[in-house]
Amino acid sequence: MSKGPEGPGLEGVERILVRATNWVGDAVMTLPALEALRENFPRSLITVLATPWVAPLFMNHPAVDDVMILEKGEGLVGNLLRMARIIRAVRRRRFDLAVLFQNAFEAALIAFLGRVPVRVGYNTDARGFLLTHPVPRDASVLGVHQVEYYLSLLHGVGWRARGGDPCLRVPAEEAAWAERALSSAGVGPGVFLVGLGPGAAFGEAKRWPADRFAGVADRAATRWGARVLLFGSPKEAPICRELKERMENPPVDFCGSTSLTEAMALMARCGLFVTNDSGLMHMAAALGVPTVAVFGSTDPEATGPRGPRTAVVRREVACAPCLRRSCPTDFSCMLSVTEDDVWEAMERLKKEIQ
After folding, report:
1. Stated pTM of the model
2. Does 9 map to a domain?
């Protein structure tokens, strides 16, 4: 493959390996960069290497031809065996180019030992020597939204990378499954649905209190005649259980009982989604669902929901954004956000979409 003045050229690339990020929200935010990669290489075969919990995001994406699953190993020996298996699989596929959205050393090592001749990634985690085209992370890259951060990786090697918002699509068979699941739960086709994402895998500092989620959910049920759906991972089931116990109007609890693809299909049916800064937040916005996001310890300028039908609710406090997993002080960034604050954002967004 030829090399241009700024980076690898666009000719002669038949097979591309993309290493996805490991967090659901981060993976959603890479989608515009993935689509830009497809625009640069319209005839190449693009394979995404992803962990099982984010792989469904790519399986029906038009920019992706194939998905390789990176299974998790158990213990040192298990991880070494896993690495050996994936390196052999990468070698067998004879990729011409690797684009590493994941910043980890391991991502570069897999591409290097997998004998991918051209390897593009940010020069992080002391992995620069493993990359043929390391891209520096300067202040201009670190100070932008994460969507632009991943697009900047392509800019860094001279490729075209137009901006845009993440977009997810639900296959027809999954949409049909969602209708059946809602019908089984006693939810008719014409009911206005409000989805709630009260968890956040990163840590408790990103979680608005469950009782306040319950408060705005009850308002939606009483004033709008809405049915409320709860979403989250199995680990977030206790949060959803507390929320459900505090609600006067019983919600439909899908927390921990769906696959990621099934959750996407159910979320796509919602007329509004209220959430913390989480993977579900990014999924809802990318599905085009009007999304109200409560922010506290994290920075909406860097990881806020993208799209025309989104709203961020937060209060300015001196210590935020601190980016901590748990709050060492008084949790004022979240506790200062009231039910009225979020409800006003919900009403405003609902009026806009009407």
Report:
1. 0.93
2. no
